[in-house]
Predict the 3D structure of the following.
Amino acid sequence: MSSFSIAKDFVAKTLQLSFRPDKELTPADVRAARDHIKAYWPHVERFHPKDDESLLGLPKPYLVPSYNEKTGFDYNELYYWDSYFMVQGLLDADHQALVSGILEDLMALFTRFKIVPNASRTYLMGRSQPPFLTTFIFDIYQAYDPGTAWLKQAIELAKQEYTTVWLGIKKPNERQVYKGLSRYYDINYLHDLAEAESGWDMTPRFNRRALNFLPVDLNALLYKYEADFARAARLFDDKREAAHWDDAADRRKATMNSLMWDRIRGLYYDYNYVKEKRSSTSSLAAFFPMWAGMVDAKQAAALVKGLRRFENKGGLATTDSLPVGQFVLGSMPTQWAYPNGWAPLHYVVIKGLERYGYHTDARRIAMKWLKTNLNWYNAHGVFLEKYNVVSPDKPPLKGVYPSQEGFGWTNGVFERLCQDYVDRPL
């Protein structure tokens, strides 16, 4: 048995600690869990420089979401948005080569295929995932200062992804479909595969009709691209270019507010452009505009008030409770829904709250999420890809694929929130 497995078994058998919701965590409380995460990263690092059957070759080492010798459901491919959240716990000098290399791999995929695919597999080339490329670029620019020339080259490639993939109006990228806004898509033109591009596979947000919806999160991410292009132009001292992107961002914001903002409920909702009506499903996608910086002070206050729809003992549920059960039409399990909570969505909400000065709310939610992760780790010796935030001592609701342990973005967000909230106490 490896030392990694021995440590895992030791934790599972000997640690049964539970941390109260009202208690601040200390560095000592999270030390064993963080050591476990640090020891886990080498198990999910891969390097495949050449194509191998369906697995695409990439120039640099990268991280996969999970590693488990006991299951046939294993990963060897790089995933787009998973990669962004995994590196949030690794933005330090020790991991500079790995983190920068992962971004290089994503850009290499676009250079070769004119899309950053769902993952680096030939059979996953028909769709992408939620686009975080410009945010990833600026994270590296701020963390490692690679220089203006590097930033110009990286931003230029992100502009090509933005235009080719996300503003495409016909196959293989028929995404911009209504009043300048975009949808999730798949080249096979199937609703369920378009829903897979959202990363929320599966969710009640789209009623199994993902191609008919303009998603809040996607268009907030594209607003962030436009704002980041303007930011880069100002760094390059190109005022005309900055004004162009500011205008594009303002147009998108105005359209989103018109179609998606519900003043009465104080949340953004996905918009069904075929039926020309908003979805009735409240979800944490509503907070992506806050994370992206596109809401005003009044909207931010309403969104903070709306947190009560989602906040539970163990953190934020992905949607508010579903009165008709946990399945969308066709009896498809919806793991991206109540009562499950997910690391990337917690991270987006927490950073959105921080951006608008709601630090007390951000800390409360961060602590709830950290304790949910930590209590499960202390009881079972593993981190999960998702958690039951309504009953944190119970397993999460299962989805269309087996529940995974590991887990890349949970580990990355846990470490980042420890840095932001445990290492920096009140």
